[in-house]
């Protein structure tokens, strides 16, 4: 009984919490009820029903002596009981309506509080792809419902590559991960990431990739299906592709070679390093919703994710790059934890920042760097695969001045902790210098 009483008290406090949009209407209801009572009294006492009011007063006077209880207290008691009855009827009506829509009445205040709270959250644009971006989104979703993810769609390997080749569509894989991270339906999030282990034609595909492929075919492209996708998947925020047209990532290496298709990078780079990447075709369109989100952003986040295959490809869409350069919002780069074999071998953190700056035309205002050290066995395991920790060793004074160093690791792993990363982004970003 104590636990239930505490839940009732908590819900009552939540109903009265600021910004929920309930107190004002409750107050209006009480005021209107009292004004209505005064109106009924005025009509009864001054109109043709005057005799009814007289008989009522005489009857009450006969039941209770004025010496025991003044007549006006009876009227006040009746008024209070009537008001409580009206409030009770509204509550029961609301419960019936909620049940009819499939919402548990006990959860209504939690859902309203959550959505009102999230609606007041900061407007954040997150740019990138891969598991790093979806990891970030899963942390931000508890703080704001105004997150917009701009996802690179140039992947040409695995399930995404097969769907691209057969349907001439953009790569859906990273979109699927981000939709799952922001979905308000745990069941749908789990289904989106389900990968088929058998079945001719569908083995290796995720359900989410097939769903996006289906919607793309049904609507004539993902750009036309965006609204349906957000509604069907109950997304807390928005997820958009960087471009709606298929594009190939092309890398120019320092040994003079050119590689087409990011799936070839790790396999064919050898000892070479990437000097520059571009999309083919280069003049790719961006969705109007993406450009609007950048203009309205209070914070723009790059990463975390693979430098040349997740972050920079989204920056190569001309309209996106132009809006990012012009935005007054602080641009924050979430530094990778380690180098990535076959992509960023031998690059320092400074090299990562310079690569972003050269491709975008704007240097990040803030570089968020992890200070926690993974367990030795984890570091050793990554080192065997050719990956090494990134830090500020050898960094320039300018980079050190823009760096915010915080512990951002999941315990016992070499991955960003979503909650710690979200908190860091919400508190560590500087305002951009407009001078």
From TrEMBL:
It comes from the Bacteria. It holds the Pfam family CofD. Keywords: Cytoplasm, Membrane, Transmembrane, Transmembrane helix. It is found in: Cytoplasm. The keyword Cytoplasm applies. The keyword Transmembrane helix applies. The chain crosses the membrane at residues 21-45, 69-90. Required for morphogenesis under gluconeogenic growth conditions. Belongs to the gluconeogenesis factor family. This is Putative gluconeogenesis factor.
């Amino acid at each position: 009984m104590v636990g239930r009483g505490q839940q009732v008290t908590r819900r009552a406090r939540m109903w009265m919490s600021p910004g929920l949009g309930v107190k004002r209407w409750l107050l209006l209801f009480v005021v209107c009820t009292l004004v209505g009572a005064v109106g009924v009294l005025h009509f009864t006492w001054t109109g043709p029903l005057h005799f009814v009011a007289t008989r009522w007063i005489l009857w009450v006077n006969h039941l209770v002596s004025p010496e025991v209880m003044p007549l006006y207290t009876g009227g006040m008691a009746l008024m209070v009981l009537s008001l409580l009855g009206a409030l009770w009827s509204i509550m029961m009506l609301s419960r019936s309506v909620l049940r009819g829509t499939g919402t548990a009445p006990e959860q209504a205040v939690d859902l309203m509080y959550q959505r009102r709270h999230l609606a007041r959250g900061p407007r954040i644009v997150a740019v990138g792809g891969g598991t790093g971006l979806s990891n970030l989104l899963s942390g931000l979703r508890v703080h704001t419902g105004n997150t917009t993810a701009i996802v690179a769609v140039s992947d040409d390997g695995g399930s995404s590559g097969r769907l691209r080749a057969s349907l001439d569509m953009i790569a859906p894989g990273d979109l699927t991960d981000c939709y799952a991270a922001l979905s308000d339906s745990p069941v749908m999030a789990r289904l989106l990431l389900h990968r088929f282990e058998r079945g001719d034609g569908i083995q290796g595909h995720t359900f989410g990739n097939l769903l996006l492929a289906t919607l793309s075919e049904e609507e004539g492209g993902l750009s036309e299906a965006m609204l349906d996708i957000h509604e069907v998947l109950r997304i807390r925020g928005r997820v958009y592709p960087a471009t709606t047209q298929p594009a190939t990532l092309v890398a120019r290496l320092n040994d003079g070679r050119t590689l087409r298709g990011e799936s070839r990078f790790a396999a064919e780079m050898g000892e070479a390093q990437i000097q520059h990447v571009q999309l083919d075709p280069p003049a790719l369109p961006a969705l109007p919703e993406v450009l609007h989100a950048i203009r309205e952003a209070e914070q723009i986040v790059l990463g975390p994710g693979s430098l040349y295959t997740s972050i920079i490809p989204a920056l190569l869409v001309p309209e996106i790059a132009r809006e990012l350069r012009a935005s007054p919002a602080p641009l924050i780069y979430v530094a990778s934890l380690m180098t990535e074999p076959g992509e960023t071998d031998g690059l320092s953190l400074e090299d990562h920042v310079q690569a972003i700056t050269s491709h975008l035309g704007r240097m990040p205002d803030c570089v968020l760097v992890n200070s926690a050290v993974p367990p030795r066995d984890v570091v050793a395991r990554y080192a065997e695969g050719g990956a090494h920790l990134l830090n500020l060793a050898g960094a320039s004074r300018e980079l050190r001045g823009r760096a915010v160093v915080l512990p951002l690791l999941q315990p016992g792993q070499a991955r960003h902790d979503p909650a710690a990363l979200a908190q860091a982004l919400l508190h560590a970003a500087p305002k951009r210098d407009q001078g």
